[in-house]
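Quick illustration, no need to memorize.
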Amino acid sequence: MQYSRRGTSGPARPRLRRRRLGYAAVAVAGLLILAACSQGASSASGDSKRGGGAASKETSTPSAAVAVSPVVMGKEVIADEPLVVTARGGKLTSVAVATRDGTALEGKVSADGGTWTSTRGTEYGTTYTLKAQLAASDGSKVSRSSSFTTVSKKDIFVGTYNVSQGSTVGVALPVSVVFNKPVRDKAAVERGLSVTASPAVEGSWSWMKDRDGKDRVDYRPQEYWKPGTEVRFGMNLVGVKNGGLVGTQKREVDFTVGKSVTTTVDVVKKTLTLSENSKAVRTIPVSAGKKDFETWNGTMVVLSKVPTIRMNSRTVGIFGPEAYDLGAVKWDVQLTPSGTYTHAAPWNEGKFGKVNGSHGCIGMSTADAKWFFQRVNFGDPVTVVNSKDTVAVNNGYGDWNVDWNTWKKGSALS
């Protein structure tokens, strides 16, 4: 008795770290120029309107100014990122940034006086005041006071992706991005996404609805990644318009494809065969889904591994005579968000290799489950054959069950 394939719950895909980029060097992010002209040894300042700066009276003395970044479309500053203040025509000697209620945003001036960077990200939808002291290139001292506003959460859309910097993944892992708000202009958003690989591959993005109804786009190559492939995922959505929303993310994530570990489960033979680099390593007797609870057919991808988990049928919508609460179940490898796992099933001892008796999971002895658990990793494919009902493309990563021509047609740029 195991997790049902028909459930709607299960441990979510792990949230993975994102790599932040220094926006000061990114032209597309833009700079909000807060200009001021020096006046000999005296100081000059000016007040700006929201999102802009007002220059003081021009003089023959070279001007000095400060700029803040990152900026969306030359107006509002991107929130939840370190703020960078850059000197123009001089060197920063001090910078003070605070909210209207006086809460300071701490930071540090670089050794060369060229920039000041905050030690934490700015808040969403917040107006900040900025006071900077500069040593102008002509030797004069310049003061600059201004204000700027960060973009509001209600005005932006963001994507959560499934790869992390420096990670090693299985050969079947697609790059997947799930958006927190509806994507009205899929073509514009897709243009802001990129995947490059070495060695190069033929690949394509394809749009779908995630299980919770959110817009999602996955990138997969035509065939599994080759072991050792180095992949870079890029996201440049800064300034991308999506209906009345705007993008603010710019990320680059580098990851590597590990060795080829593939698994085939034959529900008729009731066996699980694990292969490494196309060579069968071991075949294990298993018990798959019984009648009316058949294990999904097709290719699934390892989502996570948990040494012990409580399995309760109520979490996947099974009640009545088929209900169960198995308590702590060991050596769990998650294949779908709907609740499909491989795991130890000692209560089914005697059925392995003989009878399919689960509620959709792939059960085996505790020793075999531990062995399998230790040899598969995030992104490895597990293909079930001779069963019923192919796993849906959005139930985890069912991407490989779609033929290549159909997959490419799912791109907004096809």
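The chain has three domains: 24-153, 155-259, 261-405.
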